[in-house]
Amino acid sequence: xxxxxxxxxxxxxxxxxxxxxxxxxxxxxxxxxxxxxxxxxxxxxxxxxxxxxxxxxxxxxxxxxxxxxxxxxxxxxxxxxxxxxxxxxxxxxxxxxxxxxxxxxxxxxxxxxxxxxxxxxxxxxxxxxxxxxxxxxxxxxxxxxxxxxxxxxxxxxxxxxxxxxxxxxxxxxxxxxxxxxxxxxxxxxxxxxxxxxxxxxxxxxxxxxxxxxxxxxxxxxxxxxxxxxxxxxxxxxxxxxxxxxxxxxxxxxxxxxxxxxxxxxxxxxxxxxxxxxxxxxxxxxxxxxxxxxxxxxxxxxxxxxxxxxxxxxxxxxxxxxxxxxxxxxxxxxxxx
Length: 336
What we know:
There is one protein chain. By secondary structure, the chain is α+β, with helices and mostly antiparallel strands. The protein has helices at 2-15, 91-96, 165-168, 227-238, 260-267; strands at 25-27, 43-47, 52-53, 58-66, 68-71, 100-103, 107-112, 116-120, 135-144, 157-160, 172-175, 185-189, 192-197, 202-209, 215-221, 244-251, 306-310, 320-323. It has 2 domains: 24-165, Immunoglobulin-like; 170-323, no CATH class. Helices cover 13% and strands 29% of the residues. The strands form 6 sheets. The chain has a 5-stranded antiparallel beta sheet, covered by helices on one side. β12 (185-189) and β13 form a beta hairpin. The chain is elongated and about 80 Å long.
């Protein structure tokens, strides 16, 4: 009988504990890094570990989200996705994240007992001035039942939506023309024709916003006839940070006044072969038995079809670059 009395009475004493208890959090909730395989074009699946308190029951969990409003142009890395403190990303880096200029305020997206939540991007923004945002920070906290004590917020983790395979890959077509390879100079992004001209001379520069591939700038510089044009093109390229793709295609001839200033600028964005003619008096090397890159910049070597795509900080030679012979014999067996 005495045993039964203790069985039914002792829990009551627990419920009558004062709200200002001296309990501690024995286990804090932590978000699992969102997996791309669990995300879609409009949703991000979130899950987190269980929270435990020494004397109280967990009443609910809360999830908060925020998104970057502005990204720094000065950083070489575009949207790094580190999720926690490590030797590579110490606490100061995780807290400050210099690549972000401005974050939105934290706002609550979930409150409930479950430890899994499907975050729907389409439900987050509405009304005038809404943002089509696909990249978020998330943090989780737990709240106790008796005293509504809140646990510390977890370290933020980053998640992003994932497009379907047919949409996630955007085809970019670059076609440069030369003296003996006449035709239409083209730049096509997805199904949008950006450039399609046969009456240009020099190098056409197109700058795309990496977030939505919209055109930020387009101009053709006659670097064959004008050293000033080469200088102006180098200044324009250097004005764009890592948020932008830089695309360059040739038309006719362009090599004569492509200065070291221009090629240095393009090398910062991933180019390499473009520097051949600006340093014609330097030491040359034959890179391939089928390439004429080591020839001097005489009249016979003008008019090479050229195409390039890169972005700031990519590193010399790491961009997409195509430099073809100026003879037009692209499809000779063994030399294509």
